Amino acid sequence: MTSTTFPKGFLWGGATAANQLEGAYNEGGKGLSIFDMVSFVPKEERGKDIEMDVKSEEELNALLEETGKTNFPKRRGIDFYHRYKEDIALFAEMGFKTFRLSISWPRIFPNGDEQTPNEEGLAFYDRVFDELQEHGIEPLVTLSHYEMPLHLVQKYNGWADRRLVDFFVHYAETVFNRYKDKVKYWLTFNEINISMFSPYIGSGILVDRLEHKEQAVYQALHHQFVASAKAVKACHEIIPGSQIGCMLARMESYPETCSPDDVQAALDEDQKNLFFTDVQVRGYYPGFMKRYFKENNIEIEMLPGDKDILLEHTVDFLSFSYYMSIVASGNPDKAKEKGNFSLGIKNPYLEASDWGWQIDPKGLRITLNKMYDRYQVPLFIVENGLGAYDVVEEDGSINDDYRIDYLQAHIEQMGEAIKDGVELMGYTSWGCIDLISASTSEMSKRYGFIYVDQDDYGNGTLERRKKKSFDWYKNVIATNGEELSQKSLNEVK
C-alpha cells in the first residue's frame, strides 16, 4: 500500500494521437498529413538520431522506387476509425475519467487552407465524443498533434509562412463551434518544442529549402505561439467555462558534476526547454532567449499586436510529456555524446528502457516542483509511459510487470509532488492502447494496457487483449491513486 494525496476529481486516463491510432488515412474525405509520408525503417537500419524527417514528396517517391519500401504504419494505425466503440468500452472498463485524443487537421480540412470543412470528418469526431459521453469519459482534445495537412508543407513550407496562423485559427474555431457542447478541455500544439529536433514534424518545414535553419524554425515557432494565443482567445469566447492549455516535451536537465560549468550547461538546457512555456504561460519572450537570438543572428519578425496577443491570451494550464531526464556537461566534447535518446550524456545512476530512454521517476517530482514554482498554474501530465517489447504467453496472457513497476514509481512521485503543494490536474498514460510509435513508426514498441495484435509490417488480426497492467491501472483509478502496488491488486482480486 502506498498512500498518496490525489485530489478529488483527479483526471486519470490515457493518451493517444490520431496519426498513430486512427488509420483510414484515405477514408472519409481525409487529406494526407505529414506523418502519412513517413515510412517504417527497421531498427537495424536506423541511426541514433530521430528518424522522422522527409525532405519532399518527390524524394520520398524516388526512395520508394529505389528500395520498394511501401510500409507507412501511420496510414493504418490500429484502425480506431472503425473500432472506436470497442476501444472506448475498454477505456471505460478501466475507469478512465478522461481520454486524450487529437483531431486530425486534414480530416477536417484536407488541404488545410479551405474555407469549408469536410463534413464526414466532423461527423466522425461527433460519434467519438458521443461515445465517450455515453461512458462518462471527459475528452481532452489536442488540436495539432503532428497532423498538419501535407498540402500546407508543399505549398507554404509549413509554419515558416505567416499565413498558417489564419488557417489554424479557422480550423480551431470550426471545431470549437462544432464540439462546444461536447469538449471542455483542449490543448493547442503537442510538444511544441519538437521543432528543434524535427522541423518537418513540428512545423512542417522542409529543411532543404532553408538557408538559415535555426532562423526559420524560431520564426515558425513564433507563428505557432501567435496561433496558439488566438486559439486560446477563440476557445474562451466560443466555449464558456472551457480550459485550454499548452503542451511541452519536458526534459529535466541535471549537471554532470557540481562544476559551475556543468551547472551553467544544465541551466542553459533547462531554459531552452522552458522557453516555450514561458511564452505561452507568461505571455512574453524571456530575456535569456533574446540574448540567444542576438548571439546567433536570429531576428524574429513580429507584426504589430503580436506582443499584446501573446500577453493577453495565455493558457489556463500547462501540460507536458515526461519520459526521461537528461544530463548536461560544460565540456564541449562530452556535450556531443548521446547517451539518452540522442540527448545529453548517459546518467550512470539510471536504468534505461529497451529503446535507451533513461528511467527517472524522481525526476518527475523534481520537474513538477520546478514548473509549478515557475508558473503557478495547474499542471497536467498528458504523456508518460514505458515503451517495451511485450510477449504473449501460450495462455494468451501478457505479464507486463515492468510496465507496472515503471508507472507505479512515477505515480508515487506525482503523489509526493502533490504533497509538496503542486497543483496537478490529472495524468494520462501515453499509448493506453498499443499504437504506432511516433519516433520510429514501430508497432513493436508498445506502451499500452491493451495489446493490439499487429506487427511492424501490418500483419495481425488487430484483436484487442488486456495485459496484466490493465487490471492494475483499473485499481489505481478506482482507489484514486491510493493503491499502487501489485500486492494491493492481488488483495482486491
UniProtKB/TrEMBL annotation:
<dbReference type="GO" id="GO:0008422">
    <property type="term" value="F:beta-glucosidase activity"/>
</dbReference>
<dbReference type="InterPro" id="IPR033132">
    <property type="entry name" value="GH_1_N_CS"/>
</dbReference>
<dbReference type="InterPro" id="IPR018120">
    <property type="entry name" value="Glyco_hydro_1_AS"/>
</dbReference>
<dbReference type="InterPro" id="IPR017853">
    <property type="entry name" value="GH"/>
</dbReference>
<dbReference type="GO" id="GO:0016052">
    <property type="term" value="P:carbohydrate catabolic process"/>
</dbReference>
<keyword id="KW-0326">Glycosidase</keyword>
<dbReference type="InterPro" id="IPR001360">
    <property type="entry name" value="Glyco_hydro_1"/>
</dbReference>
<comment type="similarity">
    <text>Belongs to the glycosyl hydrolase 1 family.</text>
</comment>
<dbReference type="Pfam" id="PF00232">
    <property type="entry name" value="Glyco_hydro_1"/>
</dbReference>
<dbReference type="GO" id="GO:0005829">
    <property type="term" value="C:cytosol"/>
</dbReference>
<feature type="active site" description="Nucleophile">
    <location>
        <position position="383"/>
    </location>
</feature>
<keyword id="KW-0378">Hydrolase</keyword>
<protein>
    <submittedName>
        <fullName>6-phospho-beta-glucosidase</fullName>
    </submittedName>
</protein>
